[in-house]
Design brief:
The complex is a heterodimer of chains A (318) and B (122).
Chain A lengths: L1 H12 L3 H26 L5 H11 L2 H8 L11 H28 L6 H28 L33 H28 L10 H27 L4 H23 L17 H34 L1
Chain B lengths: L2 H23 L4 E2 H10 L6 H13 L3 E8 L2 E8 L1 H25 L5 H9 L1
Antiparallel strand pairs in B: 1-3, 2-3
Classes of the chains: A mainly alpha (318), B alpha+beta (122).
Amino acid sequence: MELVKRYIAAVQRELPEQKRQEIGRELQANVMDQLDALADQQGAALSEQQVADVLKNMGPPQQVARQFCPVQPLIPAHLMPLYKYTMYMVLGVLFLLQVVFMTSHWLTGSDFGPISFVLGIVSGFIEDAIFGFTAITLGFALMPANTRSGQCQSADQWQPADLPPVGAAWQHISLSDVFTDLATYIFLLLIIWFPLGQQWFAGGEPVSSVFTLKSLQLLMWFSPFILLGVLSSLWQLQRRLWSRPMLSLNLIVNLAFVIILVLLATMGPVLQLDTANWSGYFSPEAVQEAIKRGLLITSLIPGYEIVRDILRLRKLNK
Amino acid sequence: MTTAQLDKMRLELRRGVLVLAVLAALRERHYGYSLRRHLQESGIDIDEGTLYPLVRRLAEQGLLDSEWQQGEGRERRYYQISELGAELLTQLTGEWTTLNNALGPLLQPQKPASAKQTEEQG
């Protein structure tokens, strides 16, 4: 019966310590009963091979141990929707914070170019995201097992009448879209206002902006529309379903973006560029021309959204 | 339907019923192997990998009483339904009977429409 002892020991090794003794003892009794019954049936002692066959039939020790003590998932299934939602929101906020941090770092005069700026956002976000992912996962894993999903959202207090109307698939607003828009608006507000704010608080020291004076003035007048975009995004984040007022607001914001982009493209130099370093490769005129075309091409994005939102408004009006 | 699908559905169908069968069988005292034999003889084939963990779980929930005893030269853990388990069994039996009565007619093979009409006319 050496095989049986080895089998039981192998099962016990896979069990939690406090259950090893009890389950091993019981399993051994059951296996021995089964072997005895088989021996009685054939009227002779069992061979080593027959014992091995019985044990093989019971299954691998790891599997038997799992049947006695099933593996508990780190995040219980009923908490998974809440876990995914929390993860998405936290990662979105971390992305926004990273954009703010890197933009302010860039504007305070750190010496790095656009590629380093993007790489900085990506690497900083990955670093924060790993921390956020670990913290949230551990938080949910350590949550008491009897916590019900949706308790935080007062799941018992919902009313069917409060549900949003049935909408088309396009009416659902994805979180990634909202956070991308928010990151863009905050980035723009920072590059417009940060140098002025710094000048204000630093006591009148002029701080250079990436924009020319003319384009900066234009962008300052445009800032209320960017703030409107921030409010629109926050509204989308709260409702998560396109409605007529939301589409109208989005339309106004996008229209303002198209106008400002076209104005910037047509009014002359937009950025103050240190073209001396590039003079061997590009002429200043060529760079400004490329910026102008870039702005016009960029204006096609809010332009597309305007057309899209008009069509959506028509669908909702039907 | 594939064999895997059928196996999965059979497993789901049997899962709840096995609790009822084990509780009912343990109105008499049994140890692990004798319980398995008793169920097999009653037409319920259940492998040891399912039965023994199930019995332990029911005992941990207080639905079964258990004690270790020497029998036929070996120690065995004997199980029997507890007072709480007996109450639950009564309720589950009622539930099962209601379900079974409702399912019976539903599971009858459908008669063709023409046969139904003939019966109604007759």
